[in-house]
């Protein structure tokens, strides 16, 4: 039988890889870091305002992608920060999103938008709910963690391959 500490260590490793990829995707928009310098710095502090409107219609795809990309953060937080209450976990989702948006502004490589922070935080909350649902389905946290690690390993491998392909295609 596999040791629980090995499962936890693997989850931490996947979490670190996820965070690195998350910052690369959010801050650098899939590009090789600093290759697209020169964006105009902008900040939108009005939720769901014009930054999401394209050709007179709301662009829901960006909102959905912001939610989806933060869902693993909620799942990992459920596993790694069990002793934290939900408020603290939600603050973590907000803080990581805020840091990403701040870096976009500081580095001048993207628009900082309160809507992104809201949707990213919502994605973390959604992931946390998914985690709780998986625990209920499996009725055994060790089996649930093994399942999550299995799915996360596949997802992380595919993500690394995709990001590697994007880097190679950008060169």
Total number of strands: 4
- How many structural domains are formed by the residues? 1
How much of the residues is beta strand, in percent?
5-15%
Give the terminus-to-terminus CA distance.
Answer: 45 Å
Determine the mean pLDDT.
84
* Derived structural class: mainly alpha
Strand order of the largest sheet: 1-4
Percent in helix: over 70%
Indicate the multimeric state: single chain
User: What is the string of SSEs from the N terminus onward?
Assistant: HEEEHHEHH
Any idea what the radius of gyration is? 17 Å
Tally of helical runs: 5
* Apparent shape: globular
Major sheet, described briefly? 2 strands, parallel
* Poorly predicted residue ranges: 32-38
How would you sum up this structure in a few lines?
The chain has 171 residues and is mainly alpha-helical.
